[in-house]
Amino acid sequence: MAALTSEHVESWRNRGFALVDGLFPAELIDQLQSSAGSHFPAPGTDLADKIRDFGGAVNFPSRLDGFNEVTLHPRLLRAASQLLGCSPTDMRLSQSDLWPKYGRSSTDGDYDNQDQRIHVDYPNHTLAHPAPWDRPEAVELILYLGDVDECGGSTALVPRSGADDPAYRWPIVDTPGVGDLRYINDRAAAEEYFATERPELANWRLSLYEREQWTHYSPGTVVFYRHDVWHRGTPLRPGARRIAHNITFRRAECEWISTLHVGWSWAMYRDDKFMERLIASSSLDQRAVLGFPQPGSSYWCDETRQAVLERYGAFGFDITPYC
User: Fold this and answer.
1) CB of 99 closer than 8 Å to CB of 243
2) What is the DSSP secondary structure assignment for residue 159, as one 8-state letter?
3) In what order do the strands lie in the sheet with 241-251?
4) What end-to-end distance do the CA atoms of the chain give, in Å?
5) Are 130 and 137 within 8 A, CB to CB?
6) CA–CA dist 293, 104 (Å, integer)
7) pTM, whole model, 2 decimals?
């Protein structure tokens, strides 16, 4: 069964993003919301005041209740595969992190994360440049665990309007941090830099802000977007906390798209064996997106089947599909 409507898929492929409600079970959102709310510092505390950008983020795999289940949820895998136009087994997980953002009335200079400059996400995901628009290589998403009316912090996105849209001229390089352009995160500082150093781009970039569409979200809302879509984070209400879960899947063949975190195998060797149990209990699709050898892979032979069963058999691993 499809996880997304045809309208969602068309919006993501043509406009660059799609806003979706009801993708995850409400009880799973409640679980993750509760565990994340207890894990991260409350707003207004000394610990919260020290957190900037992705500070304190929880990365996959995690013992945080609901986190791994969201990351590998079958409906999410189906949704991502619909957008990328491939099967779940032809995708790989390259990012899954949960992090808090706190509303402040002041900024910390060029790198401040409150009111972001408009940008694209590909520079810190890929060693190359995104392929032409009709060949999407990855899908990124934000799962919101708060309510926009309470905390603000909408994601602002610029919808693409056809192949000749001037906002999406090729190549997409007029963003801080690409080429010889300085990396600046704060909106005011970034646009002042462009006005001084690249005046020919300054007015064009201002036109991107004029076309923004802001997400309206509640707990469980997901915005799927592309690495080559213009977007930015907008300010939270002072004193508020917004917790969001960022996840990225890439097409398996796109090896130039980096995995943002330490390899999943690094979670092995723990006394509770939670990663081993996760592998043993996962479906074939879930294992595939983590890079586990699939049925039919040249990896499998009598010796490797026996060895993998020895490693995971105590946790209920079924070797049958790999025979």
Assistant:
1) yes
2) -
3) 17-20, 222-225, 138-144, 241-251, 91-102, 58-59
4) 28
5) yes
6) 46
7) 0.96
